[in-house]
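Tutorial handout. Part one gives the primary structure; part two gives the three-dimensional structure as tokens.
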Amino acid sequence: MIEFYFDISSPWTYLAFHNVQPIARELDVRIAWKPILVGGIFNSVNPGVYEFRKHGAPSKQRYHEKDLADWARHTGLAIRFPPTIFPINSVKAMRACILLDKQGKLPEFARAAFEAYWARDEDIASDDVLAAICRSVGVDAGAVIAGIGESAVKDQLRRNTDELIERGGFGSPTMFVNGTDMYFGNDRLHLVREALLRARG
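Part two.
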């Protein structure tokens, strides 16, 4: 099993979300999707992310954007960076992921939300955009918008976020193989694949 902690607000997570699924299919392993709020993690254990955004070396920031564009082209995804609203408040979308996981609709919804934000530059914090994403994947938009306000959904998102911090995570995407073997970032997926093969013996 691959445990995949993620927040739609990260372009690198969009890449990893897309790229991890073929690995899981190839090796016939299940992905346990774990929606989180990465801002809560930054606030708790990785505040340097905010400092880099404000005062990071311009040359490093330029390379960061080039690297993202290179990975997007390599993966075949359209990613506009930075989008008009960045960072985005992704709490509604991530609560929707929690809600839709029980219906088996999380991967479809998350993919559509990633595309809405990173490819089409849409405001996924907007109820109208959220509703359109729901309709695009055949989900009852009204039920989702009502459901994301439920205490159980809010609490689960909070628990997932706290759980990742407790397990040593510091950002999105973070993946675990065999419960304790942690990997961070889209560019570590080849190591995830190797870890899964090792686990098979």
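Part three, for discussion. The radius of gyration is 16 Å. The chain has ten helices and four strands.
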